[in-house]
Amino acid sequence: MELVALRTFQAVVEEGGILAASRKLNTVQSNVTARIRRLEEELGAELFFRKGRGLELAPPGRVLLDYTRRMLMLERQTTAAVRQVGESTGELRIGAMETFAALHLPRALKAVRASHPGMELRVFTDTSAALADKVRQHKLDCAFIAGPVVDPDLQFEELVVEELVQVHAAGSDPLQQPLILFREGCAYRARAQAWQRSQGHTLSDAMEFGTLEGILGCVSVGLGWTLMPRRVVEQSLHADDLVVETVPPEIARVPTGMISLREAPPLAALKTLASALLPT
């Protein structure tokens, strides 16, 4: 079973079809079709249901997709690990929450760049839930998310503890305002909603935004309130227009750290990344 065939299969699944996969792989459609057919012949199973011009994963295809992601991740990590012994080159795919990326990630990336100058760094931001899924699916080498994390597939190294605070505009009453937060999957969302219920807020609806400054900008003009790490608020362009109030420790304290697959081979760059974020 050739790795190029597995890469082609993964591309067809993730891109949603032969044409899109051929564009991603910079090849012609006939090559993609031929690789998939050879893979099916080798495995003795149909990987897709053909529906007109579309494709849908068949049960054997779903099984192969899981193993394909593992095998390609292992191949990539093995190459990176071997290269790190000498040239310190390779690729490191890092996920982070928006807040973590803003507060902590730059100095960690700087440390990796200094210790592993040939390493190509790719950074993706998303919610904690989405990032954990991408690590499980071998799409990321690691991710920085809010904990605690208890998962048989993931190891979690706590690095910092964020303090969440309630934030609203000067002169506004958060009890009379909607909650403004990140989309579903954000680790802070459940805490904010729990705090909202406990305080008897009259409005249970919420507004969703995808960026820190989008949320804090709306809060600063009195459109709603939010829970946000204290350091994010203090560094915001809108800090002068915001009122910060403490919340109980069970809501406020959020252990945050790095997750990676338990089964993945150790990478020196990951150790460098985590070490740069540990308290000194």
Summarize the structure.
With 280 residues, the protein is of the alpha/beta class.
Overall pLDDT score: 87
Q: Which structural class best describes the helix and strand composition?
A: alpha/beta
Radius of gyration over alpha carbons?
A: 22 Å
End-to-end CA span: 48 Å
Name the CATH architecture of the largest domain: 3-Layer(aba) Sandwich
- Which H/E pattern describes the elements? HHHEEHEHHEHEEEHEHEHEHEH
Estimate the global geometry from the Cα principal axes. globular
Low-confidence stretches: none
% residues in beta strands? 15-25%
Helix content: 40-55%
Number of helices: 12
CATH topology of the largest domain: D-Maltodextrin-Binding Protein, domain 2
The CATH class of the largest domain, by name, is Alpha Beta
Query: How does the major sheet shape up?
Result: 7 strands, mixed
Q: How many structurally independent domains?
A: 3
Oligomerization category of the chains in this entry:
single chain
- CATH H-level superfamily title of the largest domain: Periplasmic binding protein-like II
How many E strands? 11
